[in-house]
Amino acid sequence: MKEITILSGKGGTGKTTVTASFAALATNRVLVDGDVDAANLYMITPHTVQAEHSFEGGSLPKIDIHACTHCGECVSRCRFNALEKGPRLNRIACEGCGVCAHFCPEGAITMEPRVCGTWYNSDTENGPMIHARLGIAEENSGLLVSLLRREARKQVEATGSNLILVDGPPGIGCPVISATTGCDAVVVVTEPTLSGLHDLERVAELTAFLKVPTMLTINRWDIHPMMAEEIRGLAKEKGMYHLGDIPVDEEVTAAMVQGKPLVSCSDGPAAKAIRGVWQQVVNFLDEKRGPLKMAL
């Protein structure tokens, strides 16, 4: 079994468009939407939700108002100003440290699991998909990404799949580390802009630190050919394998409107380029990480 994580370094580069097309081109795969803060793979991957689960991360204090004597001990000790006189809890400010429960003289405060969001098992025409929705202003997105990857491995065992495709989060923070650690390879989708160049460099440093083989494709490369060439130079310097690039194509937007992967409804320049990029991914894994048997 192989696991490929698709990263971007920044938002808006076309990472999810590429991931959805990879899913349509591969067989025996399980999909993971690891961008739990702003999940959107499901929008261009027709699916049916089979199961829905609550995600618990961290704890929140629960106050027994009948046992509380309003002494103010919890309010004065909270360093996050999450408790107000009453006492009343500000969920967004609370870090779940448990100081209030520990020092409450009446034992009126207990810590209970914090429900941070929801995750789903779905069926798609391109294989099982594990995805989630983190609650507004909730934390522990890295923990949720790790949970989704574990569930994907269970799906691999249950279905006999040989590939996990992870649509990773943007940036280089905790959820990106959770989506990348232990995977077989990373595909970085970037754009020919100065911010794309800068963020690609940060992703390259991260994947080098994690010792994960890294590949690169430049989306919409032809809007700034000179910058695209500079990015290719950086990729070579960082030891990243260049898969080929994807041109601007109005059919990408048309596919989004239809809610389908690009390669499923287009034979235009971008779709043809993505097919070529996917073939290079397969070739790279065959050469670097052992055989990867899948139909194209």
UniProtKB/TrEMBL annotation:
InterPro entries: 4Fe4S_Fe-S-bd, 4Fe4S_Fe_S_CS, CobQ/CobB/MinD/ParA_Nub-bd_dom, P-loop_NTPase. Keywords: Iron, Iron-sulfur, Metal-binding. It holds the Pfam family CbiA. The keyword Zinc does not apply. Signal peptide: none annotated. The keyword Metal-binding applies. This is Cobyrinic acid a,c-diamide synthase. It comes from Desulfoluna limicola.
